[in-house]
């Protein structure tokens, strides 16, 4: 299917030469030829403001779809069908388990401090835990960098696992910055309705918890679309609330499946973490549980990133975020060594 790009940036199906060879852009009203040339310099006056704003169809129906929807079985099998995914599940959980122990200890201490207060003597542990915390940050950043590659490859229409990136401090920090920016933009907007609802309602009942669960699902969908925008844009500052809301509007009902998958995965991850932290009978059981927790988190993260990337690939014409692979996460440079898939 031939596609032409209007002057306003919208992608549309190339007009059929047998039917006059030109058509009207549903977004701005310009007359576009089969060769992509604009016949009208300005939007037609006959197209009203509301028609130019919303188009003739819903945004999810204005643009051609690419490929086919990803099946659930295919998505769940993705982390297990290639070498890099299996390596991620086999080699990284032991390191993450060992290095995350002081991180979780600090979190648990501040959450369950004795008598509800803060013990200054706990600060004496920081010099010993700080090296592991820094190591955990870089290893987690490297994992997030690989997950960003999974998302990017899915958005490019690839079905194989990406290559492992090189271990480079600046690249890892840039990848972390994109994840942090997505969290700031996503949580800053997505979590606001939840906070306001809890503050206004006060005492929460069963119906309120159902409403909060629905708001959490909406927030999760908004956050992960913000993550896709932050990763697929070369300039991650372009991932702002307006572009995120437009992307969700363009994808439409098809975006419901990734949102439900992410919400369910988050529920299982939180449940597993609480099970390990609060209900492990012995230290050995806690260690094994923490290892299993990281295996599961990495597995579901690869599934979510691949599903989100393939969703962006199907709706790339409407999103308009990228015309080619983002340059920021490309390591095809001379003299660099990285693992092959």
Structure description:
By secondary structure, the chain is mainly α. It has 2 domains: 3-56, no CATH class; 72-319, no CATH class. The protein contains 12 helices and 4 strands, in the order E-E-E-E-H-H-H-H-H-H-H-H-H-H-H-H. Helix 5 packs parallel to helix 11 (283-314), helix 8 crosses helix 10 and helix 10 (256-279) runs antiparallel to helix 11 (283-314). The chain is globular and about 75 Å long. Mean pLDDT is 75; it is low at 40-56 and 331-341.
Label this structure with key terms.
membrane, 2 domains, 341 residues, 4% strand, transmembrane helix, 60% helix, mainly alpha, disordered C terminus
Number of strands: 4
Roughly how many Å apart are the termini? 31 Å
Largest beta sheet: what is the strand line-up?
1-2
Give the helices and strands as they follow along the chain: EEEEHHHHHHHHHHHH
Helix content: 55-70%
Radius of gyration: 23 Å
Overall tally of structural domains: 2
Largest sheet geometry: 2 strands, antiparallel
Shape annotation: globular
What structural class results from the helix and strand content? mainly alpha
| Oligomer class | single chain
Tally the helices.
12
Average of the residue pLDDT scores: 75
DSSP strand (E) fraction? under 5%
Low-pLDDT residue spans: 40-56, 331-341
Transmembrane segments: 86-110, 122-149, 179-198, 210-232, 255-276, 288-308
Organism: Tautonia plasticadhaerens
Protein name: DUF4013 domain-containing protein
Keywords: Membrane, Transmembrane, Transmembrane helix
């Amino acid at each position: 299917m031939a596609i032409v790009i209007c002057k306003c940036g919208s992608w549309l199906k190339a007009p059929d030469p047998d039917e006059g060879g030109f058509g009207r852009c549903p977004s701005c009203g310009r007359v576009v030829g089969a060769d992509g040339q604009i016949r009208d310099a300005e939007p037609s006056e006959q197209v009203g403001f509301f028609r130019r704003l919303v188009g003739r169809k819903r945004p999810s129906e204005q643009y051609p779809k690419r490929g086919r929807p990803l099946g659930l079985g295919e998505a769940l099998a993705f982390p297990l069908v290639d070498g890099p995914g299996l390596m991620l599940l086999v080699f990284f959980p032991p390191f993450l388990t060992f290095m995350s122990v002081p991180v979780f200890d600090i979190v648990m201490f501040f959450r369950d401090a004795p008598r509800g207060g803060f013990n200054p003597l706990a600060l004496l542990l920081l010099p010993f835990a700080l090296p592991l915390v820094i190591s955990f940050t870089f290893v987690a950043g490297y994992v997030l960098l690989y997950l960003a590659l999974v998302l990017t490859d899915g958005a490019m229409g690839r079905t194989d696992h990406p290559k492992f990136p090189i271990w480079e401090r600046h690249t890892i920090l840039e990848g972390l910055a994109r994840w942090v920016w997505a969290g700031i933009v996503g949580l800053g907007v997505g979590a606001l309705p939840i906070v306001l609802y809890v503050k206004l309602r006060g005492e929460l009942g069963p119906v309120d918890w159902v409403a909060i669960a629905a708001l959490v699902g909406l927030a999760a969908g908004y956050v992960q679309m913000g993550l896709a925008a932050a990763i697929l844009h070369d300039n991650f500052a372009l991932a702002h609330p307006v572009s995120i809301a437009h992307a969700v509007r363009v994808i439409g009902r098809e975006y419901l499946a990734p949102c439900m998958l992410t919400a369910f995965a988050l529920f299982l991850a939180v449940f597993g973490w609480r099970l390990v932290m609060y209900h492990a009978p012995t230290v050995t059981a806690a260690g094994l549980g923490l290892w299993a927790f990281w295996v599961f988190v990495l597995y579901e993260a690869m599934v979510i990133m691949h599903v989100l990337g393939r969703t962006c690939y199907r709706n790339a014409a409407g999103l308009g975020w990228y015309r080619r692979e983002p340059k920021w996460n490309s390591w095809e440079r001379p003299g660099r060594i990285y693992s092959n898939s």
